[in-house]
């Protein structure tokens, strides 16, 4: 047999195994078979990343380390987690696995929003967008009294706390949960509400520029602790309940290889562990800041360059150049 023919047969045996499951498990084959690029998600995420990086680079050229590199990485990681939750092949499993569904909720509400807010996105976006657009559209929009009143409401810690808890508890009511799984429109509304509620919830904790905290910082410890209570109750119920809470999963084909009840227990355990870590870490950081005597001077030193940089835009809008009151 010619050597070329032997090589082709060897290549065929390597790339096309007789049993496809040995090359890729059935669950992953199903995920990639159902996965499609979501243009309405991918394009905004890419545009947001490009605008942020453009503005961040302009700030970096004019003012060294005004926004450190780790903040830019945090912002991009937050965008990536949004894509992983909604636009990646992971989304193909949310209709048959509560664990995957819970992971999506955690990424959208607990992890992506604080990472994006830690990126201090306002200033890079102001420098990344076209200057004429900032002057004629962004600045006039934030001058409206109604917008400023809405900003004060949406940044109030009480409102932000209830928004986060309401989204979490409301969408995990069996009737609402089933509706979101059976209707694509309601599924999109569910994901959107989780993401918006996540930004609202983490805003008082991260306190990104240009907002400032009018509530004492120690109150954020109580804010985070009280938010863990409804999460722990829901997670504990899902973990230790001896029946399937969401019966909709009993009527769908399953490729994940575990029972519906075991999947529910894993989802509850995942929520309990992730929320505990996600809330404990910022609480520990806040505690260390409160115990540091020079915390106020360090905060002022970090805010001054941002305020000075905003003057370069020559904006007269108080809502853009001055902190937003909570």
Q: Number of helical segments? A: 16
The shape, in one word, is globular
Instruction: Give the DSSP E fraction (strand runs of 2 or more residues).
Output: under 5%
**Main sheet, how many strands, which sense, barrel?**
none
**Helices and strands: which structural class?**
mainly alpha
Structure description:
The structure is a single chain. The chain has about 325 residues and is mostly helical. It has one domain. The protein is globular, with a radius of gyration of 24 Å. It has 16 helices and no strands.
How is this fold's topology laid out?
Blueprint: H1 3-15, H2 20-23, H3 26-34, H4 39-62, H5 69-86, H6 98-118, H7 122-128, H8 131-143, H9 145-154, H10 157-171, H11 174-182, H12 184-206, H13 219-240, H14 260-290, H15 295-311, H16 318-321
Helix pairs in contact: 4-5, 4-7, 5-6, 6-12, 6-14, 10-12, 10-13, 11-12, 13-14
């Amino acid at each position: 047999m010619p050597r070329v023919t032997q090589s082709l047969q060897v290549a065929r045996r390597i790339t096309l195994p007789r049993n496809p499951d040995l090359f890729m498990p059935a669950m992953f084959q199903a995920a990639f078979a159902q996965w499609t690029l979501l243009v309405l998600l991918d394009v905004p995420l890419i545009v947001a990343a490009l605008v942020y990086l453009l503005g961040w680079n302009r700030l970096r050229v004019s003012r060294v380390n005004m926004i450190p590199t780790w903040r830019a990485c945090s912002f991009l990681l937050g965008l990536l987690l949004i894509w992983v939750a909604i636009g990646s092949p992971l989304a193909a499993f949310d209709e048959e696995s509560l664990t995957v569904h819970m992971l999506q909720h955690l990424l959208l509400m607990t992890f992506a929003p604080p990472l994006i807010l830690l990126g201090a996105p306002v200033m890079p976006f102001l420098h990344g967008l076209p200057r004429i657009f900032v002057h004629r559209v962004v600045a006039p929009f934030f001058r409206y009294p109604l917008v400023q009143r809405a900003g004060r409401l949406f940044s109030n810690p009480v409102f932000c706390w209830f928004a986060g808890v309401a989204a979490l508890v409301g969408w995990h009511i069996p009737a609402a949960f089933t509706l979101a799984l059976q209707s694509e429109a309601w599924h999109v509304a569910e994901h959107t509400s989780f993401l918006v509620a996540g930004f609202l919830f983490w805003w008082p904790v991260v306190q990104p520029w240009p907002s400032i905290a009018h509530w004492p910082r120690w109150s954020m410890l109580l804010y985070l602790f009280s938010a863990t209570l409804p999460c722990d109750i829901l997670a504990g119920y899902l973990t230790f309940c001896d029946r399937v809470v969401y019966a909709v999963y009993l009527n769908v084909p399953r490729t994940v290889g575990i029972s519906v009840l075991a999947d529910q227990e894993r989802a509850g355990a995942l929520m309990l562990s992730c929320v505990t870590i996600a809330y404990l870490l910022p609480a520990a950081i806040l505690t260390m800041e409160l115990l540091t005597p020079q915390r106020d001077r360090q905060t002022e030193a970090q805010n001054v360059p941002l305020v000075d940089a905003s003057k370069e835009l020559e904006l007269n809008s108080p809502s853009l150049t001055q902190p937003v009151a909570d």
